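__Record contents__

***
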Amino acid sequence: MLEGLAFLPVDDVSAGMAYLKMVMPDGLEPLVNYFDATYMSGSYSHFQIPLQQGAVVNPVLVRSTPAMFLPPLWNVHDATIRGESLVMVGTMHSANLLVMCIRLHLYLESH
């Protein structure tokens, strides 16, 4: 299911992720959310700064963390259309796909 995103045109990967989120089986939300945060849209973290003297409320800040590996790094759509062997897509794509698979495997083992 998630691996199919690598074969969509890069401009359609976000729409593909949105579709997968709608149709994913129960229980896969953590995996899909992890994939989205790491390989698609990044994530947001909320944190509260310490109360300043005289302040009534601790402000809550939101920090955006970009995705570690954006779709252009791991997407193989264009290479597939050109008829290139996925093994020969290139060092950059192959390394990124390998890292993606390893990270997903480690995530699945930890959850």
Summary: Residues 2-110 form one domain. The chain is about 45% helix and 10% strand.
